[in-house]
Amino acid sequence: MRASGVLLSILCGPCVCIYVGFAACFCPARLHRRSEPEDKRRFERRQRHAPRPLVVRKRGLSIPLPEPEPEPEKLDIPSSPEELKQTTVFQEKSRLMALPLELREMIYKAVLGDDVMHVIHKENKLGHLRCKAKSEEDCPKRWYGEGPCRDSCWGVVDSSNIWMPVGDPAERSDGDVLPLLQTCRQVYSEAIPLLYSTNTFSFIDLDCLRHLSATILPSRFNAIKSLTIEWYLTWPLYDDFAQRMLFSTSLYPPHDEATWEEIWRIIAGMKGLQRLRVDLNYFDGFRDNECEQKMLAPLRQIKGVKNFTVYLGWKGKEVIGAPFKLTRPVTTGADDSSEDDW
């Protein structure tokens, strides 16, 4: 019995050492990778509660409204309620409309614009929360586990990263934007371009950006001038070796390579975009520079953006020939000396 135990230890010892060494290299203790069944459940729930794409319909608020030519046989028939809703009445006696357009636009911007709108994924629709900070740099970004915590601008999300109110069930979101826009067609037509062109749209969920492009008119989406994205990359993104060795299936959206590349194709098609800020974090950086270059490759297709900055939360090599300004954590002298000792 003792001899068989010694023989078993001799045979199994090298296998255990190889396993421990492999896990130490590719699975750091600080990396908490979810099991595939949980990732699949989260993905399926997000799919069930995804916002519906924009449908082709008759516009109810936009002007000018084309007036259909009356048919002779229908002149004596009263209009239906739907037709009455489409009636445009000019507001010459309104004191607001008596103001010059420049002053009206200043009023619209004070109510709807010049702010940071955090776009959130709600059940079956998108919403937004106005930033609580005085400036974008002061925005409180405190995280608890995988989602934002209560005292951040983002509120709280569930395990599927879907926003949920905490405390008061009637907690308000969406910033009271719609009441002004629904006042009349002229207010809507004058104010709606300012809503998209003067605000900064902020995202911490790639699906929210993808859904936004599919749920609003292309002209509204192309009117967006300022965009910020903060995203935590999921290991082992673009690491083919680790994916082959450690996982039998690929990453689930929105953490996979296909979604990442689709997002940058969408951003590349935004005709009015002038400012783009991207904050990326990864548990301790990429295993090698080649994987990082694959991750940054979709960003290189962005053209014509005046202010394009990318902030990486890990150290690495300098990126040359990119259309963006890259910033990494500052390397101190103590860090350099410790690396030289090794």
TrEMBL record:
Highest rank taxon of the organism: Eukaryota
PROSITE patterns: PROKAR_LIPOPROTEIN (PS51257)
Residues forming coiled coils: none
Pfam family, one: DUF7730
DUF7730 domain span: 91-316
Disordered, as annotated region: 61-80
Designated name of the protein: DUF7730 domain-containing protein
Species of provenance: Lophium mytilinum
